[in-house]
Design a protein that fits this description.
Keywords: Signal. The protein is mainly α and about 210 residues long. About 65% of the residues lie in helices and about 0% in strands. It has helices at about 5-10, 35-60, 70-100, 105-135, 140-160, 175-180, 185-195.
């Protein structure tokens, strides 16, 4: 079994871990910039937006638990891993739809809509990757290795297309400012510091 191919799925870091708001406007505020009821609602909305992204990041960036020694074990572990990721994406999509129902302003609703569309495409790719794993025959080592490699390629392709979700907040100055105050957005920023921003893919071995 080409264990390096199996390791690919376990070591790929989810690009969402790179999410953070940039420094943007200064935290220094003038009297006109002090929080208002609308600003408070904006921070709460942005905090939930970032919280959804953070939960998804933590789910999909966790390591795959498999020795890689037994094909049947590897298939079951990969299928479960991809299934969990797909379920997490489904929950995130639902959250984004709910965020569109009561945005503090149109720009916020538009940001949630664009993120929902991106997550939906990624989930489709994730489901395709899981289907490749589920159809693989563990008894056929060569075919199994090819299926796992194809699943890994689909997985990394979809996640690689995911933009930093907080970029959607930067199109609006008020949303960007709110992201600097929202606890979950700050947590995403800290995670960017602690987590590599690019995937690590080992070379296949014999």
């Amino acid at each position: 079994m080409r264990r390096g191919l199996i390791s690919t799925l376990c070591l790929v870091a989810f690009p969402l871990a790179a999410c953070t708001a940039n420094q943007g406007p200064s935290d220094m505020t003038s009297p006109a910039d002090r929080p208002s009821p609308t600003a408070d609602a904006r921070v709460q909305w942005v905090d939930r937006y970032c919280g959804t992204t953070l939960s998804l990041t933590e789910l999909v960036s966790r390591p795959l638990q498999t020795s890689g020694q037994d094909n049947a074990e590897t298939k079951a572990a990969l299928s479960q891993y991809l299934g969990d990721a797909s379920s997490g994406l489904d929950r995130a999509i639902t959250d984004m739809r709910e965020l569109q129902q009561a945005p503090p302003e149109k720009a916020a609703g538009d940001a949630a809509k664009r993120t929902e569309e991106t997550l939906t495409k990624i989930k489709q790719g994730m489901d395709d990757a899981k289907a490749k794993v589920d159809q693989a025959d563990p008894a056929n080592a060569e075919q199994f290795a090819e299926a796992i490699q194809a699943a890994g390629a689909e997985y990394t392709k979809q996640l690689g297309q995911f933009r930093d979700p907080t970029e959607e907040l930067r199109v609006n100055r008020e949303l960007e400012r709110a992201s600097q105050q929202a606890p979950k957005c700050r947590e995403l920023s800290a995670k960017r510091t602690a987590t590599p921003t690019s995937p690590t893919t080992p070379s296949p071995t014999g």
